[in-house]
Amino acid sequence: MKQSMTLIPTLREVPADAEVKSHQLLLRAGFMRQNSSGIYSYLPLGRQVLQKIEAIVREEMDGAGAVELLMPALQQAELWQESGRWYTYGPELMRMKDRHQRDFALGATHEEVITSLVRDEVKSYKRLPLTLYQIQTKFRDEKRPRFGLLRGREFIMKDAYSFHANQESLDEVYNKLFTAYSNIFRRCGLNFRAVIADSGAMGGKDTHEFMVLSDIGEDTIAYSDTSDYAANIEMAPVTATYQKADEPYRELEKVHTENQKSIEEVSSYLKVSPESCIKSLLFRIDEKLVLVLVRGDHEVNDIKLKNLFNAGTVDLATPEETKAAMNCAVGSLGPIGSGDNIEIVADHAVRAVVNGVCGANQEDFHFVNVNSDRDFSHVKFEDLRFIQEGDPSPDGEGTIKFAMGIEVGHVFKLGTRYSEAMQATFLDENGRTQPMIMGCYGIGVSRTLAAVAEQFNDEKGLVWPANLAPFQLHIIPVNIKDEIQSSLASELYSSLKVSGYEVLFDDRQERPGVKFADSDLIGIPVRITVGKRAAEGIVEMKIRKTGEVLELHKDELPAVIEKFISNR
């Protein structure tokens, strides 16, 4: 491709609203442009990288036995109403009406569409298992689009769905696609980990996220420092054991704590450690109010709460709800005297607090010398807190450390969540009607592009892996008006293209410094500069990643390029 004939609008300055490296560099290098908040056009270079990622995805998905199709982005509301998600998905679902006032949604995901399709076409166990996938644009009305392609309102996704007659079949396909995903992200050169995750609004159980390690990641990964264990912080169980202090119980006492609300304020005022305090928070779990207790230095994990109660929604009670139910404000809540109509659950660590502190359910008062087995024995103890760095790893090997991650893939075992709601059934070998068992598997294709850009860059620009770069070679004549340089550059361009290489030829009438800066910014793996020694047939080959420079005769060049490219 001649550079004068394509669209690569590079920028010298960092765009003011671009916060992270990938966003900055993909804009500056001319890979994309913003149309609206969270909505981007992929320019020729960006589209070429996307196509290479998509090709890797297709190869691995096809190799795992999946078959590609394409479903509509515009989806009938009736399908979402069948599954129940029309009412629960939330404002991220972009809804609209057609000219006949019928409700539709722009596809945020395609469980409903694929389930309706398969239920109408597959009736017998003999047609199962079946795994179908697509690569398509998705839409989610993010409240706060940010970080460029990492959190947008329109994005490119590969989503796959598998249908099974039994759990063993689902497990087999899940494992195949887990391996395929690992291969995809490995082939993209990413530093990633597969972590145990929560299924969220998708439903289902047994799910893993594929997280690219990055300081700007929005998810925290809890991982073992000595084993392969890794989980999203929301899902990591706490296996720590707690020993009670060896001291006698003191008499329960109510004390005045005027204007002391937070754990920090109360512990400082009473001259005790946060570990000696019991934090009490009132949650609305679906339509039920539940008082949740954790140790003062711990935080309530709402995902664990949701899973414990098998709930659809978990939210902190409003100040008005709290006042009505507990007769006091947040900051004075506690389990003693809370009333029989409020269920109480506590984290295991609370059981080990001896002579602790908790709210007295009276404004500006707290109890001291609180002991759970004596003072509120009607409480149920569960694992309810977020894991912390230094806790034992749940697999029994090593201790927990934290890292930030960008989610690029997610695999779920959905079970019968959608097939039962939408009556996607089949006849088994005994002629009995059974709901199909489902799996769901997603990859953020445009997110993967951004994640690669986030991990592969330096102070000059992008540094693409050879298999993902928009071009493999970048030919730059220093002076395009010089007939000898122009002729040699054109000769190399033609011969290398014939040899099967992807070549960008900078035939622009620009200063050499501009051409070199653009080349570094774009990040093509090999740059071939045709300069003052063109008359001798000598060119300069520079490796973008290492900065290594070689002077070669044009006849030597093909062999050196082949060796470099084949090793990448």
Please provide a written account of the structure.
With 568 residues, this protein is an alpha+beta fold. It has three domains: 21-237 and 402-453, 2-Layer Sandwich (BirA Bifunctional Protein, domain 2); 253-382, YbaK/aminoacyl-tRNA synthetase-associated domain (YbaK protein, Alpha-Beta Complex); 471-566, Rossmann fold. Helices cover 27% and strands 29% of the residues. The chain is built from 16 helices and 31 strands. Strands 3, 7, 8, 9, 10, 11, 12, 21 and 24 form a nine-stranded mixed β-sheet that branches. The chain has a five-stranded mixed β-sheet with strand order 16-14-15-17-20. Strands 28-27-29-30-31 form a five-stranded mixed β-sheet, sandwiched between helices. Helix 1 crosses helix 13 (445-455). It is globular, with a radius of gyration of 30 Å.
User: By helix and strand content, what is the structural category?
Assistant: alpha+beta
CATH topology of the largest domain: BirA Bifunctional Protein, domain 2
Please report which band the strand proportion falls in: under 5%, 5-15%, 15-25%, 25-35%, 35-45% or over 45%: 25-35%
Instruction: Tell me the distance between the termini.
Output: 22 Å
